[in-house]
Every structure is written in C-alpha cells, then in structure tokens.
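Regression check, N-acetyl-beta-D-glucopyranosylamine case 824:
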Amino acid sequence: MVPTHDRALAPVQSPETDVDGFVGAFLRELNFGQGVSLARASVNDQHLALARTVRQYLMARWLEAIAQQRKNPVKAVGYLSAEYLLGRQLDNALLATGLVDVVEEGLAACGLSLDTLRDQEVEPGLGNGGLGRLAACFIDSLATMSVPCIGYGIRYEYGIFRQTFVDGRQVEQPDTWLTLGGPWEFPHPESSQLVNFAGHTERFTDEDGVERTRWVPGWNVLGVPYNYMVPGYRNGRVNTLRLWSARATKAFDLEIFNAGDYAEAVRAQTFAENISKVLYPEDSTPQGKELRLQQQYFFVACSLADYMFEVLHSTFDPAALADRIIFQLNDTHPVIAVPELMRLLVDVLKQPWDKAWAITRQCFAYTCHTLLPEALEVWPVELIGRLLPRHMEIIERINAEFLDEVRAAFPGDEMRVRRMSIISDYPERGVRMAFLATVAATRVNGVAALHSELLRDKVLPDFSELWPEKFINVTNGVTPRRFVRQSNPLLSGLITEAVGDGWVTDLDRLRGLEPLADDAGFRARFREVKQANKTRLFELLQRRDGYDLPEGSMLDVMVKRLHEYKRQSLKLLHIVTLYESLVSGRVDPADIVPRTFIFGAKAAPGYRMAKETIYLINSVASVVNADPRAKGVLTVAFPANYNVTLAETLIPAADLSEQISLAGKEASGTGNMKFALNGALTIGTDDGANVELRQLVGDDNFFLFGMLEPEVAALTERGYVPSSFYEADDDLKRAIDLISSGAFSGGDRGAFEPLVSNLLHEDRFMALADYRAYVDAQAKVDAAYGDQEAWSRSAILNIARCGFFSSDRSMRDYIDRIWHTEPV
Ligand code: NBG
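Current build output:
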C-alpha cells in the first residue's frame, strides 16, 4: 500500500493489457467518462471512450517522461513549428502500445468494430503539406529513439480547410476537427502564458544603476497549452507536443456587461481568440498578414517562456541554457523567437547584451524548406515596430553588430554589407527572417542534398562565404511506423516474414529484401499485396467519392499541394495527349497500357492558377471517364480533400509515383519517399530528394526525365519562350489545342483560357520545355509495366534500398551534427 500522503510515490495504474483488462477499462470510460451505457452509446461515444482507454496505456510513461524532464539535467530539443500535420491519432497510439489485436478482440466482445470506430476520427490537419507532415514524422522518430523533445506549435481551432468540389471547382469548408471532442488533448490552463503586443518601450536606470529598457505593452492575450502525447514505438517513451490556444486575458468585462453592452464585453474575447483560430493556407506567398505575425510571436513567446520558466527552474543559470535546450526553427515562421530569447535574457533575466547574444547564438538552429524566393518571409519593419516594438529594437541592434562583423571580414565591401543586411531597404524596409535565422543559428540546413547546395550557393551565398561550416544538409525522412507499418499491414507482414520485425525501428534492414527481388515466389506475393491494397483503395474511393475504378490497370498517382512548380499541369498534358491520341484514332486503344490516374491536391484559396488547374483536372476527368472509347483504358480520379488519412490508403496501392517538379524548385519532397517505401516506381525529375532516391535505387529502377537544374538556369538565362515548344511539338500542340477547343468544357472555348495562355506565354516552371522528355519517359514506363516480373523486381528493390529515408536517420543526423542531444 502506498501511503496516501506520499504524492511522489502514488503510482499511475495502466489497465491490464489483456482483453478483459481492456474491456473493463473501455466500459469504465464509456460509463464514467462519456456518461452512457454500452447499450445507449453513440458511435461518437464509443470512439471517444476507445481513445481515452488507449491513452490510459500510455499515461504512466508520459507522466514519467514529464517528471524526468523537470528533474534531469539533460538537453532537450524544442521543435518550433507553426505546423504539425499529425494524421489520425488512434491507430498510431494503438501501434505504439502494440494493442491492436487486444483492442480488436475486446471491441468485438462488446459487439463493436475497430474499423467503424477508427473512421470516426477527424485528423488534426494543423498543417498545409510536407513541412507540417515532416514535423510530425520527426517528433515520432524522436519519441521512438527516446530523445527528449517538446514539440511546440499552435492549436488552430480550424486546421487546413476541408476541400469540396462544386462543378469541378474547389470550394473550401471550415475544418471543424474539434466539434466532436478532442480525446487526445490535455488542456492546462494553469500553465497559461501571458503574451504582450504593441505599446512602446522606455529607458530607465535600474536599482543597480544599469541602463535598461522596459516594454510597456498595449494589449495582451493568454496562451493556454494543450498537451498531446507523442508515443514512441513500443519503447515506453512518450514525448509531449504542446500546442497553444489563445484566450482573452479578461474573459468577460463584468462592468461593461452590467452596463448593458454585451457585444462589447465579448469583443475582446473574440479578438484574442482569433490568434489561434485558423491555419494560414497560404504556402507560396506570404501576404503581409498581421494576424500571421501575431500567431508566430504568440506561439514562440509562449513556448520560450514555458521552457525557460516552467521546465527549467527559475533559479536556472542562463549561461548554461545551451546545455539544456536547442530550439530548432522549422522554416522562418518561428524566427521571431530569436529576438524574443534576447528580450528574455536581457530585459527579464538582466543579462548583459553580449553575453545574452552569445547564449542565443548557441540555442538555435534553422531549417529552410524552400527555394522559391517569394516563400522566404520578409516582415515590414513598420509592422514589427508597431506590433513588437521591443523586438524591432533588438533586431536593429543585432543587425548593426552583425554588419560590423561583415565589414571586419570584408573591409570596404559595402555592396556586400547591403546584400547581407537583415533589414532590407527595398521595396520597403523589411526584416528578412531567413537572414535573421542564419545569423543566430549554430547550423543552417536544407532538406535534401541538392537543396542544401542551392541554398548555400544561390540563396545565401554571402552567408556561406562568411560561415562555411554553418551550412549543412540533412535529407528529410518519413516515419516507417505510420507510412509502412500502420498504413500497409500486408506489405509489413511480408517484410517481417523476410527480414524479421526489426525494420520498423531500423529501416536499413530492408536491405535484406534485396536478394528476394530475384525470387519469383516473393515477387508474386508482392504483387498480391499490391493488388489487395488497390482493392482496399478502390473500395474506399467507391464509398467516399462514388468512383468506380477499373481493375487491372496501372495506378499512376500524383498527390501533393497544388502548386505550379510541382507541375500538376504537366501530368495533365500527358493524360490529354493519351486521350487525344485515342479519340483521334491515331492510336489503337489496345496499344495503350491501361492506366488509372489519381490526383490529390489542395490549392491555397487565394492562388488562382492553382484553382484553375484543379478545375481543368476535374473537367478532363469527367470527359475522359464518360467517354466509352476510353473506358477501361484511361480513367482519371480526383478524390476531394486529400489528407494524411487518405494518403495512408492511397500510397500503398500506387504503382507509379509522380515527382515531376521543375529541377531546382522542390526542396526535398517526402511523398517520393513514402511511395518508394511502399513499392511504387518513380517517374521524376532530378530534383529534391529524387536525386538521392535515384542514386539509391539505381537508374534501372527509376524513370528520370527532364532538364537538370543547371540546364534550367541556362534556359532562364537565354530567355525561355514556351510557345516555341508548343510550335515545335505536334503532340503538345494537339493536347493544348484540345484543351482550348472546348472539348473539356462543353464547347466553351474560353473556360481554360487563363491557364492555357499562362502556359503558352509565361510558364514560369517550364512545363512545356519538359513535356517531350516527360511523355517519352512515360512511354518507357508503359513498356516496363508490360513486364510484370521485371516491374515487381524493381519495386522490391525500391523498398530494399530506401531504408535511408527513415526519419529516424534524419533525426540521427540532426542529433549528431546539430543538436548533440542524448537519448535517455
Ligand atoms: C516543403 C517543401 C518540400 C519539403 C517539405 C519538408 C514548405 C515551405 N516546404 O519539398 O516544398 O519536402 O517542405 O521539408 O512547405
């Protein structure tokens, strides 16, 4: 018996891990948590009770990890990310605990089905795409590797919009992921943080006679933390993801209320809560949105204060901060953390400036996730000055001292000084957040070999000249737990049979599959798995979207954010080319390898060209699918609302993975890795992580096409004239003419005019220049697919050789080369 007064010893009791233990705990959650009997429980009750039961199994380890973090002086990673695209939680938690079978059996004993309940869960879509999903993969890996990490971010009330199509056009619906209850989150209002905004600064002399600055804010909000479990895979470790939600500091002004102005009384509340209301769907062009900067500062201020004053003791010596934390800046969104840490050290903890700056420069590392110049954030000085006056002063001083450093290193080179200034003068005074991050960070990394090279040599060349050792590459990865083990149980079974189950946490063991590529029996089983995954997908798309997809065709998949640089339009030109050749009678349908094309993509709501592309895909799909001449030969499906949940069924079914961005534009891509690990072959350009993928799997097992990055640069230099490619290529001309003819728009010739004229006259991402190479490479794909034995062999080799793309490996790279943290 534990004496009731000894709080430290009070044990956390997980339920027994057998079926009876589970059923008992589940019924208790249903009865006492949901307040219903099994007989009267709704499916939502059942789902919430199940989630709460599963989390009971993780609780003891979680509480232990939290206690340890406060006690043990070990270094942790503070992952600062404005996005986490988590995907559903239930399956992941079940996998981590190893309880799937027990739960399935226990639920069956209660007359319930796990499949039905898992479909109740609305995934937390707190991210736009790859960047947010990468953050989710990374925290999964750190938990699995028992490395202490707190993920910090924003609990958006509305995540990425729910996409619907109305007459083929994207219509956005709010993502109400929290309406039916959030069983995976734990609010801690008692640990709220106060966040200040606006106002002005004042100089004063403190009691020790030291000149100081004080920030007199104009208004403030509260940040309420919501904790989420991040369970490691069967290792008993549970890390924390801490997402902040904004609240008004005075929820209700009673005086105003009593005076009869109800609306005014709640106005303050609405204003404050707006800060964490929605995820910005903008991913290509940061519009100077004040609210977005508020979001960024809000979550970063909460997170830094949380770590400095809650996790660490208030007596903690700031000089040793870098021994306890490294803040990883996931892109530029959290970079305002740099002046915020300086403010905490100088104004709050009363450290001398130079010492504070030395500390700050040890506590950050920066990852860049893009090469598009328009995606590197620049905030107007006027805006930061108004919203965060103290931070603007700090940035000015950091910049002034940094530029002195530049002058010392390159005397007399004022052009260079201007180029490198954190504060730009043109078109307006603005703070280049990527520069600020680079100056403060111990390391700056790109996310694939090519990207890191271009980042170093083209985006930040002056900085890499000054600090060559700062710039490194860490190639992205994906978690094999969610994207193979959980999403592809059949393939996982096959792999485990062949190489044992260690691959789930040591993906290099997939190498053991290599000899089996030459084993006809193994290949046949691989094909059976692929076939079963296709059937599973087709059933889902039938239920979900009403598609009736043909059996026995090649499944050609392109899923990713909709963006011109990713070139969904190039994929579409290929489809239209095939269709045109078929309906014009130039090619016999029997000579076309049957394909089912699947698209999945959301367009940022304000991105016109992307939305027009969606409209064109849907229009082509409806014409092709309705044409009896194309039946069973060409089918195009575009299920709405592509998200992590859909990806988990889609990717395991794919034969062909489309990674066709213009060389030099895709930082890495992570979809490419997921497809290869699930036994799809890739058709791709020499871009992002495709480069490494191809090197790993070998040229024979990858369909490469298109210009290389230097060729793209050279063509840009010469002057790119897209219409000349149109004039020179009959197939391309026919495809574009068919689109312009009204064939996909009920005769309306103007329907796709903006898109077509953009392609012919601008084509910023050179789809027309790569068209011929692409269509030719697709012909090779067709030929290769004809030999199913050879195709399966390649697919198995793709799996065997892609262990490198585990996010566990990425994390090891960050740990060894940037963070220097230890597992516990
Ligand atoms: C994306 C890149 C991808 C990359 C992911 C993760 C942004 C800003 N960048 O190529 O486009 O794989 O980041 O690094 O979302």
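Comparison notes: DSSP finds 32 helices and 25 strands in the chain. The first strand starts at residue 76 and ends at 80. No diff flagged against the previous build.
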